[in-house]
Amino acid sequence: MTAIADVMRRNRLRWFGHVERKNEEDWVKRCTGLQVSGMRRKGRPRKTWAKVVEEDMEELGLDREDAQDRAFWKIAICGDTS
To answer: How many CA atoms, within 13 angstroms, populate the side-chain half-sphere of residue 56?
Structure first.
């Protein structure tokens, strides 16, 4: 049985790889570097999606450039080719 944390990690990395392979002019790709203006809440900052993805990639020993090879990326995050 697969742990829910593993399923969530796999889905986050699957989406990250999809966006990472997109054209630089695509609106989804441009939104990854978007800075939001305004004031933050008081207290510890919440984890961002990008930070969680970085931690997931570090845990699996992956780099951002690895996402360009779709077959390798799928094997690395899913463990199978189906």
So the answer is: 24
The residue to which tokens 């780099």 are assigned: 63
Whole-model pTM: value is 0.81
Question: What type of residue is 21?
Answer: R
Contacts of 64 (CB under 8 A, 6+ apart): 20, 57
pLDDT per residue over 31-41, tens digit each?
Answer: 888 888 888 88
pLDDT above 70 as % of the chain: 95
Domain ranges of the chain: 1-23+47-82
Burial of 10 by CB count in 10 Å (0-12 exposed, 13-18 middle, 19+ buried)?
middle
